[in-house]
Amino acid sequence: MSQPMVAIYILVLAGFIGYWVVWGVTPSLHTPLISLTNAISGIIIIGAFLVAGASAGTGWPLAVGLLAVTLASVNIFGGFVVTQRMLAMFRKQKKRE
Amino acid sequence: MQQLSDVTALAYLLSAVLFILGLNGLTSPVSARRGNLFAIAGMAVAVATTMFAPDMKNYGLILLCVMVGGSIGIVIAMKIKMTAMPQLVAMLHSFVGLSAGLVALGVYLTESGSGPPDTALMVEIIAGTIIGLITFTGSLVAFGKLQGILKPAPVVFGGQHVLNSLLALSAVFAGYFFTVSDNLVFLLVIWAVSLALGILLIIPVGGADMPVIISMLNSYSGWAAAATGFTLHNSLLIITGSLVGFSGAILSYIMCKVMHRSIFNVVFGVSSASKTEGAVEAQTAEGKSVKTTVVEEVAFWLKDTGKVIIVPGYGMAVAQAQHAVKELMNVLEANGVTVKFAIHPVAGRMPGHMNVLLAEADIPYDHVFEMEEINPEFVTADAVLVIGANDVTNPAAREDSSSPIYGMPILDVEKAKQVFVIKRSMRPGYSGIENLLYYRDNCSLLFGDAKDVCESLKAQLKAM
To answer: Would you call B391 a catalytic residue per the annotation?
Structure first.
């Protein structure tokens, strides 16, 4: 099996997991779902690392890689923090005193 | 790209599992915070594993960029108002898109010149570029519309679809020549075309269709990450991208279903604009008049009633009225009134937008109900307060088969004993359709800003 074929296997199977997991998410948490998936799609930072750290050289690959690292970092930190902020607000009825 | 070591591969697998557990946590508000922590842990494992790889170079610079980007992200996330959440999300989607485009470019710059071009790799680079950059500019347009920098109204012109098709076709041709010639110029052509396409696909979408668009761009950003995974032969990126891609796709599907729109039309940038024009004349309630009321009257009605259902909409977000609503709820509950909230799936500018605003105002989530749960309850409600919602309460969706929104599921507010609609003016909702609810005998309109009205209602009730 060629490498792209393996990749397609993974894509499809992960898609099924995503499908079932996401249908289980309660609609009241759809905004946090979007911000959380947004944060984890910051995983693209791994690709940015590989580009920026591929060669000790300077020039375009390094610049392009570093810009991607910066953008993805905004995503990861911003996404997780804002998700935590939102989730912290979801509370049940407090006990009446 | 070099092979992953087994240790790295195992660490990535752990990350993927943690991401899945993280999303699974969102099944209930109780487990949700733990879910977010799982996802953070997954990200930390992935980042640390990649960064501490032995052959990593430019270590200091990378760390600096992580710190700069991370600080910006944290500051924005701490300061953003909950009503502005759709804008924030749109902006963050654009970053994922641009990163994907940059990584694809970077991979090409790194790999080119090291032997003959690898066709599979070239195709993967092209895919990453196109998906990433469409996500980038598309999200920027969505951000602009939500933030009010751009006009939220749909921008439609003749030949729009022909132009889009031509652009898509030219991207395919440029891709072909890029693969054959291994020439950077063609990749840059693909960049230009994709950037333009992203803008053109989102400008015809109006403000009220944003819940679909946000979900769709969420999905695109996932596919962009997955495409990068193909380029880099990185399974973690593929798994994560696929999870996010499907998540956004499911949300888009749910939003389309409840807005009564075809997902095909949305994906291919067909807006509701064309259908709106015919809609205005389709519905006019001739010879009927609406009743208006005043705060004192509403307060009097609410004072000794048994059960009140509040229906919030985008108007509540615009007026920042969620805290005033919470105070109104407190006063009503102190009088022994049962207060419940009914949320239509497309209320607001993104899925779940209203839930977050009510949670921000410290309204307990066990008071807040989804459409299917609450619809049977309207019959038993003594009063309904509609705050800044419109089309989602329009009985035309059920009764008038000529109405453009016919078939769209709505909240059955008219079944309550009495309905009060807090509204700024008689202006119809986004669809341009007159709301038949307003002409019902049991409906009265209360004109004013949602926040002011809720505050004076509270004051009246307290004074009684």
So the answer is: yes
Whole-angstrom distance, CA of residue B205 vs CA of residue B156 = 9
Q: How far is CA B239 from CA B20, B109, B114, B173, B429, in A?
A: 10, 25, 29, 30, 40
* Both tokens assigned to B32: 């949700």
Helix (H) or strand (E) holding A11, with range, is helix A3-23
Residue A3's SS3 state is: helix
Q: Per the residue annotation, which of B209, B391, B412, B449 is the catalytic one?
A: B391
pTM of this structure: 0.89
| 3-state DSSP assignment of residue A47 | helix
Q: What is the pLDDT of residue A2?
A: 84
- A77 close to B (CB below 8 A): yes
Q: What was the pLDDT predicted at B428?
A: 67
Q: Average pLDDT in the B74-92 region? A: 94
| B130-B131-B137-B143 Cα dihedral, nearest 10 degrees | 180
From residue A12, give the alpha-carbon distance in Å to each of A15, A88, B314, B320: 5, 34, 37, 42
In a 13 Å sphere around the CA of B388, the CA atoms on its Cβ side amount to 25
Contact A31 B95 (CB under 8 A): no
**Model confidence over A35-75: pLDDT tens digits?**
999 999 999 999 999 999 887 666 888 999 999 999 999 99
Which pLDDT tens digit goes with each residue over B220-278?
999 999 999 998 989 999 999 999 999 999 999 988 888 877 777 766 655 444 444 33
Q: Which residue of A has its CA nearest to B121?
A: A4
CA–CA gap between residue B297 and residue B302 (Å, rounded): 9
Tokens for B299?
A: 């307060």
Distance (Å, rounded) from C-alpha B336 to C-alpha A92?
19
Interface of A with B in 55-74 (CB under 8 A): 55-56, 60-62, 64-74
